[in-house]
Each structure stands twice: as C-alpha cells, then as structure tokens.
Amino acid sequence: IRCWSNIPFITMPLSRAHGKSFAHRSELKHAKRIVVKLGSAVVTRGDECGLALGRLASIVEQVSMLQNQGREMMIVTSGAVAFGKQRLRHEILLSQSVRQALHSGQSQLKDMAIPVLEARACAAAGQSGLMALYEAMFTQYSICAAQILVTNLDFHDEQKRRNLNGTLHELLRMNIVPIINTNDAVVPPPEPNSDLQGVNVISVKDNDSLAARLAVEMKTDLLIVLSDVEGLFDSPPGSDDAKLIDIFYPGDQQSVTFGTKSRVGMGGMEAKVKAALWALQGGTSVVIANGTHPKISGHVITDIVEGKKVGTFFSEVKPAGPTVEQQGEMARAGGRTLAALQPEQRAEIIYRLADLLTDQREEILLANKKDLEEAENKGRRLALPLLKRLSLSTSKLNSLAIGLRQIAASSQDSVGRVIRRTRIAKDLDLEQVTVPIGVLLVIFESRPDCLPQVSALAIASGNGLLLKGGKEAAYSNQILHHLTQEALSIHGVKDAVQLVNTREEVEDLCRLDKLIDLIIPRGSSQLVKNIQKAAKGIPVMGHSEGICHVYVDTDASVEKVTRIIRDSKCEYPAACNALETLLIHRDLLRTPLFDQIIDMLRVEQVKIHAGPKFASYLTFSPSEVKSLRTEYGDLECCIEVVDSVQEAVEHIHKYGSSHTDVIITENEETAEFFLQHVDSACVFWNASTRFSDGYRFGLGAEVGISTSRIHARGPVGIEGLLTTKWLLRGDNHVVSDFSEHGSMKYLHESLPLPQRNTN
Fold this sequence. Notes:
- Its main location: mitochondrion.
- It comes from Burhinus bistriatus.
- The chain is of the alpha/beta class.
- The chain is built from 23 helices and 24 strands.
C-alpha cells in the first residue's frame, strides 16, 4: 500500500500557491508543467474511423522533446471511440462476410449494412489499443507513459480526488507521461451546466472540461488545447470577415460569435473557451491552436512553448495600447489618407519633423542618455560599434534635420507621378502612375536616428509604417516617435506611423502577411538573415552582408590609394559599406606603394588577414583568413592578390555580396571594364566605398541598401518605396469592338508626359 502523505493535495483549486498565469506569450518558455489536450478532430482521421497516425506520431515527438528538456508533460487525449469504432467495424464486417458467404453466396456481400455502433462499446474496444499505440510511440524516445481513466465522480469524491492527485504527482516525479482520458465506457450523462459561474468546480462533460479541471488541480503552468481550427475567431471561421484573435481576455466572449462544434467530439469552441477561462481563473495559462494543419502540426506544441504567435493565447493582463494587428490596420488607413494629401502637405509634415529634431534636441539627448546609461548599468555592455550607433549628438541631429529637409524638397511629385502615357484607341487613354507600396515594416537595431529618417521617407512616399526598434534604444525611439506623430498631426494623419512597443518577436511580425507589404531590416547581417528566413509571403528588401572590395590596379595613383583605402576601412568600420577585402594587383607587391598601404593600415591599427594567394608570397605572413566571405565590421580586413582586373572581377563575383565595390586606377579603359562587369548594386571608380549612402547620393536619407535584383537596388530612397498602378480612361469601350470584325483598331501611341515639378 502506497502512502501519499508527502503529496501536497489540492482541495480548493482557485486558492493556488503558484500564483497568476503568464501575462505574455514570451513567458511561456518558462512553463514547467504542461497539459496538452488532443481533441477528437486532432487524433482521428477525416473519416472519423481510426486514428491519424502520422499526426499522432508528430505530437508524441514534440511532447517527448519537451519532456526530455526537464518539463513535466501530461496528455489529455480523445480517440478511444474512433479507434474502437474502427476495430468493431472490422469485426462486424468479418463476421457478416463469413455468415453471408456460408448462407447467401458472395454476390450479397456488397449489400451488407453496418449497424450504428454505441459510443460506450466503441470506447471499451478502443481504449486498450489507443494506449498500446501511445506506449509504442513514446518508447521510441525512451519515455514511459501511463494510462489514467477518469469520470466526473472522481473529482467530486474527495478520497478519489486525492488518490488521482497523488497518482499524477508520483508519475511526474518518476518522469512518466500520464495519458488521461474520460472513461467513456462507463461515463454517466453530463450534468446540467451549473458550473462556470464563479464557483470552484467544473463538471467533466468532455475532454475540454477534463483538461481544464486537471490543469487547475495539478497547478499546471500551461494548458495547450489542440483542435481543428487555428484558434478563436471574432466570428465563425470561414466567414469573409473572420479574424483570428491573437490574445483573448476575460470578458471578451460577449463580442465573439461561436459557430458549430468540431466535426467530431463532444465540445465545440464555446466549450473550449469556457474551459479555458476557468483554467485561466485558476492560474493556468491557456493556448487554443490548430493541431491538424499539415504545415504547422509538426511543431505547433514546441512553437507555443517557445512563445511564438500560434493560435489564441488567453491572458488576464490587457495591454494599455493597441495590438500589433490593430497598429497594422491603423498604419494602413493612415497611409491611405497620407497618400491622398497634396505633395505640399506631405512636405510640410517632414519640414515640421526636421524643425522638431532641432527644437527638442535637449529632450532627445536626455532620452538617449538614459539608453546609454542602461546599456552600461544593466550589464549589456554593448560592443563599441553598437554604442556608437546608439549614441545621438547635436551634430547628428543637425545632420538628420538637413537630410529630412532634402527629402521634403525632393518629394513634391513622388506620389501620383505619371511615368507612361499610351493612347490605346480613340478616346481610350492609359496612364501608369506611381503609388505607395502600402504598409512597410522597418526593423532596426541600435540606430535611433533611423526612426526619423525612415519615417520621413515613408511620409514622402505616402506609405503606412510599422517601426520595430531595438530595446537598447527604447527611450530614444519613444521620444522620436512622439515627435513624428506630432508632425503628422498637423494634417490629421497621426496613425500613419506606428512604433511597435509590444513584446512581439520579430519572427511573429514577419508572419503578418495580410497587414504588411514590405519588410526592410536595418541591422546586423544576422538580423537580416533571420528576417529573410522568417518572412513568409512578405518580400524583404535589404542585404544580409556588406562584403565590400577595393581593387588597387597597377595604374593606381599613389596619392589616391591610401586616402581611399583609409576612408573606406577606418572612417566607420562598423558600417555595411566599409571595406572588408582589399585586392591588390600582383605587380604591386614589394613596391613602395604596397609598403605605404601596409604602413597606413598598421598606423590605423587595422588587423590584417592574408588571403591564400597573398600568404603564399610572404615568408612571415599575417594570420591566414578563415573565409574570403567575411564581413568584419571592425578594424580588420583581408588582403588578397590578383593577377588582373578580370581576376579581380571574378573574385568579387565569387566572394562578394553585391553591395559596393571600388577600383582605384588612372587607366580609364580598365576602370570602364570594371564598372561595366562588376555585378554589384554600387560600383565606383576612384572613390571611397563609404559614398554608398542615401544621404551622400542626394536622396536625403535611405531606408537601407538593397542588393536585390528586383524593384530597388543600392541605397533606397523615396523612389524605392513606390510602385505603380495603371489608370485607363475610356468612353463606353468594350474588347469586342477590337475583334477582327469590330469597328475599332488599336493605336498604341505614346503620349507626352506632363512636365515634372523640378523646384
């Protein structure tokens, strides 16, 4: 006889010692004890007869992974009735076929009818097989599983309740996964719905209520309810206006319309929501998600535990501001209003923002000082290049203001500009005009000065804007966004630019394909790579690396070489347009020019890495480079030797990132060969790589530098944030008039464009 005296039994579920539920999704990764409820639609096949074995195996794999991380996993499962129905059907068909073969002949086998099977009998026949399947699957991961069958009486009888509680605690202590199900073979009819009214009990009418009751009894941190829908919608799923609710709060159920229950099982979405709210009231976090979708079911449980935006998260903490989805809709509506303004009005907003940057410099610098102090005091210890990016100064703000005024001056005819006119036929004229892209998501790190730059470009191009800045610049970003909205308010378009302050992970933002039209990352190469990988269905404009080359030709000017190399590498080594690989013609080795280059790099304390060919020429060489595709972002560079300008071009194409590449030579023919053959976004002759910048190009500012071959390339200013639409003006024209026997003919005449405003 086991003694359970050392087990902390629960008699009043709502007076729990472990406190409140998690307030945010990001906290779910701290969940220690987790209940996974598998709905009938998740466990069973589409024909409701038999189990979805592949789906079940994937769920077991995820539960095993979390169990092996040290978490305590429990499963509340359906499926016994479906599994039993499959077995009983097989037995009935087999017995009927034998009898009919003996008495009636084979011809009547096709007329056999399968009787309606009673659910309790199916459950009795299916329980053992279902458990055997779970055991076999968990054994593959060296995990033991145990079956527990319960009824509502087990929770109402105090002694049975204590026994159940103790058994579950002991199984968890021994690293065993309990698999719980209602004992459908003997379960009584459900009680009247007298629970869920603020009392301490919830009747076990289905596996939803069982999972909620169990989660509260066992002080569970997280309850994951898997069904055949993505989560909770504001109206029945499938209807035109139905939107997935990301976070559901107590009291919100009044604004939700519930549809019918799932194709199988006892409980519908209304039952799930009631059970989830009861569990939430008891201190357990809840997520309702889709466990049947083939693209996500293989990682839905682990994604939820990692805090990713999957399904509907139930929370008692309602944020003070709008959700990111609401911000996206506000940016869309605000952007459309912004695009409808007159060009002079958009320019006026930008001029106002430029004035605010200088008028409010003291407040901006004070906020920036708080960011810098927190970076020092909270142990973040940002690298020196990142601290330099984070820091604002009076000169930086003045430069920002100048750049914004350039944007305002150049934006007069950016939106609605006619770029093509064609007369299709008599009185049928076609125009192609520039329009905003829509809603931009700009994600930037440690660069508060990026916020007003990008905002001004979005305003000038009539785009709605979502901004996600790094937490290290939180105070600076807040005040700069406040000033941006103050400037927007002069023409009533305050909502066009939104700063995302919620805890959304970047990966979750990249999934909002119905709200965002273009993602522009501004930050480290790793950030850009992560965003490019995470973005599903949303184009990403930018570059993952800035591996910029400078090629020194045999005809290079001695006076120009060291100046250009020093500026390209040392002026701002953390920039994406800084020199990373220096290519030197072989004939320049052991010449005074080569010695001057090396001496200058040593004086500037640039660490040199030797390329393979360069190392082969030296008796004592610097450390050999590990990879010729390295972006150092610091006072380091690689030196490699090439035999010709052709070889330099081939090296750049093989190891470069199509960002910015430079030739230093006095030979015009060689320079033109380089300019025409290097396939990069920016290619320069006798100029520093650092000129690859929107401000220096006269664009006023840039949202980033793109190495993409579609849409925009190089520093992206206003033009890169525009697309086009076609306007056709006719007079009762129909295509049938242009048929072989029609009365009209196509003209396709090019028409002159309206004169641009060049002021």
